[in-house]
Amino acid sequence: MKKILTLILFLCSTLFAVAERVNSKPFVVPELTSWQGGEGNFLPSGRVVVKSKQLRAVAEKFAADYRTLFGRSLVLTSGQPKEGDFVFALQAENEKEPLGKEGYKLSVGTTASVSAVTEQGAFWATRTILQISEQTASRTLPRGTAVDLPAYPLRGFMIDCGRKYIPMSYLRQLVSVMAYYKMNCLQVHLNDNGFKQYFGNDWSKTQAAFRLESDFFPGLTAKDGSYTKKEFIDFQIEAEKQFVEIIPEIDVPAHSLAFSHYRPSLGSEEYGLDHLDLNNPHLVPFLDSLFTEYCQGPRPVFRGKRVHIGTDEYSNKDKAIVEKFRALTDHLIRHVEKHGKQAVAWGALTHAKGDTPVKSDNVVMQIWYNGYADPVKMKELGYQLISIPDGYVYIVPAAGYYYDYLNCRWLYEGWTPAQIGKVKFEDGDPSLLGGMFAVWNDHVGNGITVKDIHHRVMPALQTLSVKCWTATKTSLPYEEFSHRALYLSEAPGVDELARTLGRNTRTAVEYPALELLPNSTLDWFGKEIGYDYSVSFDLHAEEVNPGNVLFTSPNATVYLASPNGGKLAFEREGYLNEFDYVVPKGKKVRLTIQGTNKETRLLVDGRFRQALYPLTIGGVSANAGAAGATADPYSAAKMYYQRTLVFPLQKTGNFKGKISRLSVSNYIP
């Protein structure tokens, strides 16, 4: 009996020892959908073996990103694999282990071998390899096998470029970030307008913009920021190389003040000039020409297979106008189809319930609010659905409604695209293409910058990437996921968060002997430092003249003396913010500027001086005092003006004097 017990104990201890040696699932975002751990690690040799010619471009992109992230060059070859090689190959679809269009198999042993049915699947595998590699200094991979494929074919994000101009440079960075997290669809909302209550209830003064160059309609394109046709085409080509689809959106017949500004006769006097007049016989020819300009020809401006026609939030108070709205929706669907495009539209047909038929076959509908489009009914009608429920996934920066930052914990723990409001589909429902989240820049002029938008986008994007790819198969608690996700790069070569001193470690650097003179380049540091930070320096100013600059970068300027009045100030994206402090001439002071995503603080000689926190502007409801007035957030002319700063550290400016004892930390002491 003792021998049997001894044998059992030996076997159990052996099994436990083996189990301890088996590699656990590596952390990546989105989480791998399956993993079978092996023992030991794979150490890269520096070679990439490309066994399928179609994967050459994927392998080249992998090598370029590897070099960007780790400073090591990989050699591409088509020879026989050796120990330590990365190996890329295409395979035929296997019914026993289907990978589909986007799935891949990663087998890590003596080699790290990627097999996929398509280039896209292989590309996603490279994102996984890069994410794992950046978590160890040796760039090793744990041995084991992953078979990874998405729960939903569409995983996306919509950005409002109409109310706030989003530079093309950022859109390109955004595509790389999305690709790094296997998000495959970016919707670019090309036109929109502010709310007139913020512009004196005057439509003629209300902000409106159409962001794309137009030859058919000279003068339509926004003057405060736009995209040329060529750069928009090039942008889409670059996105295609990273397997991110760009869906351009022209939103009509509501949210359309840019068009009635351009041609006033198109605007509706009855429903507001942000509504196009559906009774105007010139409207349909105008819209046909507008969409034709970008969809037609062998090299169209809108390159992708899908084009968004808008159809969001038009008035339904009159049945006759509802029928015209439905007729226009049907017409625009068929019009873009004539140019070989699949139409995408905002869900509105429950709100605009009527008798006029609207084409549903091969039409994609975004379900954002069930009162506007009942998802069950839209499924029955035959629409392909995208889940983008406003109550869960709408970011409206600093607006005081919807979300400033998404509730990522709730989304991670309890949501998938199958949940649209109170309606719950089955995950994998064939009518449900996938899920998206959105940033709406409703409050024009509220001080929010692209840096602030990106700070809101990143945690949401990482969370939605998991919920659209891995869906319910997550294994990590939210605390561990959110903590470990902070250690990952935004994407190779992308640092929009300006985490110059580290991603999630408290780091401070001080240069006690350094003296910075005017027009000095700070290449040894970086262009800027993002939230939360503290920057301190001794300043001896020989002169204090309006417009003198202390620090600058492409995104921001810190003024020794404001151009307007001579106070210490900073400017970004045209927003100038002043501290109530004038730097003394000929006297050394120690200045400390601290920044979070909510405020910017000033300390002088170690003592707190001022905090530039959000300012509440306005606050008078458009219908205040009216009988039956409701607390409609859209009618309250209140704005929360933000005074944040991602601190510029690329170079010093044109001040006269010197800066010394520069100290920078990525936390606030």
Provide a concise account of the structure shown.
The protein is an alpha/beta fold and 669 residues long. It contains 13 helices and 37 strands.
Strand percent estimate: 25-35%
CATH class of the largest domain: Alpha Beta
Poorly predicted tracts of residues = 5-19, 620-631
Task: Please indicate the count of domains.
Answer: 3
Helical segment tally? Answer: 13
The proportion of residues forming helix, as a percent range, comes to 10-25%
The dominant shape is globular
Kindly name the structural category.
alpha/beta
Radius of gyration: 28 Å
Specify the CATH architecture of the largest domain: Alpha-Beta Barrel
Overall pLDDT metric: 94
Looking at the structure, the CATH topology of the largest domain is: TIM Barrel
Number of strands: 37
Say which CATH homologous superfamily of the largest domain is assigned: Glycosidases
Topology:
Layout: H1 2-21, E1 35-42, E2 47-50, H2 56-70, E3 75-77, E4 86-90, E5 104-108, E6 112-116, H3 119-133, E7 141-148, E8 154-160, H4 168-180, E9 185-189, E10 191-193, E11 208-210, H5 229-241, E12 245-252, H6 257-262, E13 267-268, E14 272-276, H7 283-295, E15 306-310, H8 319-338, E16 342-346, E17 364-367, H9 375-381, E18 384-387, H10 390-393, E19 394-395, H11 408-414, E20 419-420, E21 423-424, E22 432-439, H12 450-469, H13 478-485, E23 508-516, E24 528-529, E25 533-541, E26 549-552, E27 557-559, E28 569-572, E29 575-578, E30 588-595, E31 600-604, E32 607-612, E33 615-621, E34 636-641, E35 647-648, E36 651-652, E37 657-665
Parallel strand pairs: 2-3, 2-4, 4-6, 8-9, 8-22, 9-12, 12-15, 15-16, 16-17, 17-18, 18-22, 19-22
Antiparallel strand pairs: 1-7, 5-6, 5-7, 10-11, 13-14, 20-21, 23-37, 24-35, 25-30, 25-37, 26-27, 26-36, 27-28, 28-29, 30-31, 31-32, 33-34
